[in-house]
């Protein structure tokens, strides 16, 4: 599609149907992931969960005050 003079393109179809063809069902990202990518994503999510737990614990320690 060629656009000239800053004119916007009309969106008659979604990008997913444009990329895969209008008759084909849209492809899910999980179908395109390899097993190694899935394990890497799982490890990354686990690390993010662990990091958020550590941040929350650090906040508790930082905000801890001894009542006198």
TrEMBL record:
What name does UniProt use for this protein?
Uncharacterized protein
Where is there biased composition of kind Polar residues?
Answer: 12-23
Q: Quick one: where's region Disordered?
A: 1-45
């Amino acid at each position: 599609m060629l656009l000239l003079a800053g004119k916007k393109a009309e969106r008659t179809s979604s990008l997913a149907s444009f990329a895969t063809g209008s008759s084909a069902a849209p492809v899910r990202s999980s179908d395109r992931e390899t097993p190694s990518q899935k394990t890497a994503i799982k490890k990354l999510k686990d690390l993010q969960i662990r990091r958020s737990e550590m941040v929350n614990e650090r906040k508790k320690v930082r905000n801890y005050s001894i009542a006198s």
